[in-house]
Specification:
The strands form 2 sheets. A 7-stranded mixed β-sheet has the order 3-2-1-4-5-9-8, with helices on both faces. By secondary structure, it is α/β, with parallel strands linked by helices. It has 13 helices and 9 strands. It has 2 domains: 183 residues, Rossmann fold (3-Layer(aba) Sandwich); 79 residues, Putative methyltransferase TM0872, insert domain (DNA polymerase, domain 1).
Length: 302
C-alpha cells in the first residue's frame, strides 16, 4: 500500500495561514496522521524553529520523517502539556488539531472503521488499548448502547438498534462488520442508509477511543502550552466535536459557560478569530469529497 495516499489533509492552505507561522517559532501538530500538515509547517521554519507532532497510532508513527526541526511524539495528544514540559518548552506559538480520521484507517479492512468492508470490529486508534468495538457490543447493557448511539451517533432509532444487538448477541457474537450490518440494516431507512451507518460507526469509534473526554482534556492542555498571542487551530468533522471546540474558544471551558466582569465584559482566555467556521471551497470538496464536513475554527490566547 506504499503508493496509496495515507491521508489528504483538509483545508491545508487555510490551516497554515491560520497558524500565523514565524520561522523561529515553536509549534504543535496534535494529530500527525499522514504528516501532511506537519510537513507543510516544517517547510515554513528556519533552523531555529521547531514542530512537535503527536500520534498514538503505530501506522501514523511509520510516517514520521527525519528533520532537525521536527520531533515525533508517540503518544495521545491529551498529554501535550506533560511532553512540552519534558522537552523543556515553556510555550508554543500555535497548536493544531485535525480531528478527522485518516483515509488510511477507513480504507484498512483490518481496522474495522468503515462499513464498506467486512472485517473485525476493532476501531482502536491505539491498538494496545483493551476495548474494541466488538468488546463494547458484547459487554454494554441495552441502555448503555442506546445512550451511546443516541448521544454520539445522534440516531433517532438508537433504542431499537440497541435492543436488536443485545438480542442477536445471545446467539452469536457481534464481532464483525458483516454481522453488525446484518442486524442493523433492517432498522435503517434505505434512503438514509449510508448516513445512518456512518453515524452508527462514528458512535462506536468515539466510545472505543474515548474521543470526547480526550478532546476536552486536549483543549484544556492547549491553553496551558500556548504563549500569549499563540493560536489554537482546530478542524472538526461532526457537531459534537465542533460544539466543544466552539464553546472552549468562546469561553475557555467546554461547557461554554461565559463569565463576565463587573462591567459585563466577557472574561475569556481567548480572542475568537472565526465567528463562523472556515469550510472547504467547492473546488476542494470536488477534489477531496471527504473534506466536505470539515470546519476550521481559530482562536488567539490573550
Amino acid at each position: 500500500m506504499a503508493d496509496v495516499v495515507y491521508h489528504e489533509p483538509a483545508l491545508l492552505a487555510e490551516t497554515i495561514a491560520a497558524m500565523k507561522i514565524v520561522d523561529n517559532g515553536s509549534y504543535v501538530d496534535a494529530t500527525f496522521g499522514g504528516g501532511g500538515h506537519s510537513r507543510a509547517i516544517v517547510e515554513c521554519l528556519s533552523a531555529k524553529g521547531h514542530l512537535y507532532s503527536f500520534d498514538q497510532d503505530e501506522d501514523a508513527a511509520a510516517n514520521a520523517f527525519d528533520d532537525p526541526r521536527f520531533t515525533f511524539v508517540y503518544s495521545n495528544f491529551r498529554y501535550i502539556s506533560n511532553f512540552m514540559r519534558y522537552y523543556g518548552v515553556d510555550g508554543v506559538d500555535a497548536v493544531l488539531a485535525d480531528l478527522g480520521v485518516s483515509f488510511h484507517h477507513f480504507d484498512d479492512k483490518e481496522r474495522g472503521f468503515s462499513f464498506r468492508w467486512d472485517g473485525a470490529l476493532d476501531m482502536r486508534m491505539n491498538r494496545k488499548a483493551r476495548r474494541t468495538a466488538a468488546w463494547i457490543l458484547a459487554n454494554y447493557s441495552e441502555s448503555e448502547l442506546s445512550d451511546l448511539f443516541y448521544i454520539y451517533g445522534e440516531l433517532k432509532n438508537a433504542r431499537r438498534l440497541a435492543a436488536a444487538i443485545v438480542k442477536a448477541r445471545q446467539s452469536e457474537p457481534v464481532d464483525t462488520v458483516e454481522r453488525l450490518l446484518a442486524i442493523t440494516k433492517p432498522m435503517i431507512n434505505p434512503r438514509q442508509e449510508k448516513k445512518e451507518l456512518a453515524q452508527l460507526f462514528q458512535a462506536l469509534r468515539i466510545e472505543v477511543n474515548n474521543e470526547i473526554e480526550v478532546l476536552q482534556s486536549f483543549l484544556e492542555q492547549s491553553l496551558k502550552v500556548l504563549k500569549p498571542g499563540g493560536r489554537l487551530v482546530v478542524i472538526t468533522y461532526h457537531s459534537l466535536e465542533d460544539r466543544l471546540v466552539k464553546n472552549f474558544m468562546k469561553s475557555g471551558n467546554v461547557k461554554g459557560n461565559v463569565e463576565k466582569d463587573f462591567y459585563g465584559r466577557v472574561l475569556s482566555p481567548f480572542k475568537l478569530l472565526t465567528s463562523k467556521p472556515i469550510v472547504p471551497s467547492a473546488e476542494e470538496v470536488e477534489r477531496n469529497p471527504r473534506s466536505r464536513s470539515a470546519k476550521l475554527r481559530v482562536a488567539e490566547k490573550l
